[in-house]
Each structure stands twice: as C-alpha cells, then as structure tokens.
Amino acid sequence: MGYGFVSLIIAAVAAIGSAVAYLELIRSRRIARFEEQLPDAIDIIVRGVRAGHPFSSAIALAGQEMPVPTGVEFAMAADELAYGRDMTTALDNLHRRVGETDLVFLIVSLSIQERTGGNLLDILSRLSALIRRRLLFRQKVGALTAEGRLSALVLTLMPFVLLAVMVIEAPDYLATIRGHPIAMPAAVAGLLALLVGNLIIHRMVRFKI
C-alpha cells in the first residue's frame, strides 16, 4: 500500500489489536488455570473447616497451599476478610478480579448458607464435585471440537504460508501482479472471507457449558 495516512491507520489498528489479543490470550490462560485449581482449593477449605479452623483461616490456608494464580487470589480474599470485609464482598471481589464463572456457584452457595444455615462442609464438598464434573465435560467438548479448531488454524495460515513461498520462489511474479488494479480489492475480499470463515467455525466449535 505504500506510505500514507491509510497505511498509518491500518498499522495503528493492527498494533492495538495485536496487543489486545495477546492480553486476552494471557487472561484466558490464567482463568483456565484457576478453573482447574478451584476444586482442589475448595477441598483444602473443607479440610481446614473440618479440622476446626474458622472459614477465613481455611481460605488463608488455601491461599498458602495452592499454586499461582489460585493461591494468590485466595490469599487476597483472606486478607480482605482479616481486615474486616464480610465474606460475600470478599468473594465478589475475588470473582471480579479473576472472572471465572464457576466462582459464582461458590459465592451463591456460601451466601445462602450464611443467611439460612446448613451444613457448610456438605455444601462445599458437593460444589467441588460439581465443578470437577463441569470441568471434565468441558474437556470432553474440547476434545470433540479439536478437529474443527485445527481446521480453522490450518485454513487461516495456509494463504500466508503460500504467500511466503511465492515471495521466496517467485518474487518477480508478485511484483508483477502487485500493480494490477484488481490486486488490492482481491486481497481485501480474501481477508474478509477468511475472517467470516473463522467466525463461523468459532461459533460452530464454541459451546456454553
């Protein structure tokens, strides 16, 4: 496209989009790790309460024994409880920081137990088993949709791989077609078709559980 205002805008949008995509990837991986570790953290809380510790101390115990990121987040929740926050607010802040959906079950269960009473250990044990079953089901869905996601990756990379091969093997040919009036509209149309195809495949292989 050469130098100019349009190229500058496209470069700025691409740079910002790449940064946002990278941060979103890191965030999703962190949430996935928290999701895998959450049942074990709840089991530690259950063992702590069963051993006679108050609930806030059991959360602090989970913060000490669990790895990153679950241990760090539960330690922060334990600090909030130690400095006078009520349990519902501390857990709401935990959910706001992490963004993991299964935390909603923990917050709702503990809020109901705090207001109406009940066997806290039984509630937490059943919740841990429920989250484990949901995680197992998500993993099964991921395995069943792996072929579709791999197809999307291959179809997305293939045009760029072919372009790189052409740049190496036949640079004169690319220089010839680059100046053709239909080259830029064809490239834009191809990128739009690639984007639409990825969106369709994404909707096909993504399920809310």
Description:
The protein starts with a helix and ends with a helix. The mean pLDDT is 88. Helix content is 84%, strand content 0%. The chain is elongated and about 80 Å long. α1 runs antiparallel to α6 (120-144), α4 runs antiparallel to α5 and α7 packs across α8 (171-178). It has 9 helices and no strands. The chain has 2 domains: 28-135, Receptor-associated Protein (Up-down Bundle); 145-209, no CATH class. With 209 residues, it is mostly helical.
Radius of gyration: 25 Å
Total domains: 2
Series of H and E elements = HHHHHHHHH
**How many helical stretches?**
9
Topology:
Layout: H1 5-50, H2 55-65, H3 70-82, H4 87-98, H5 103-116, H6 120-144, H7 146-169, H8 171-178, H9 183-205
Helix pairs in contact: 1-2, 1-6, 2-3, 3-4, 4-5, 5-6, 7-8, 7-9
Question: Nutshell version of this structure?
Answer:
The protein has 209 residues and is mainly α. The protein is built from nine helices and no strands.
Key features?
2 domains, 209 residues, elongated, single chain, mainly alpha, Receptor-associated Protein
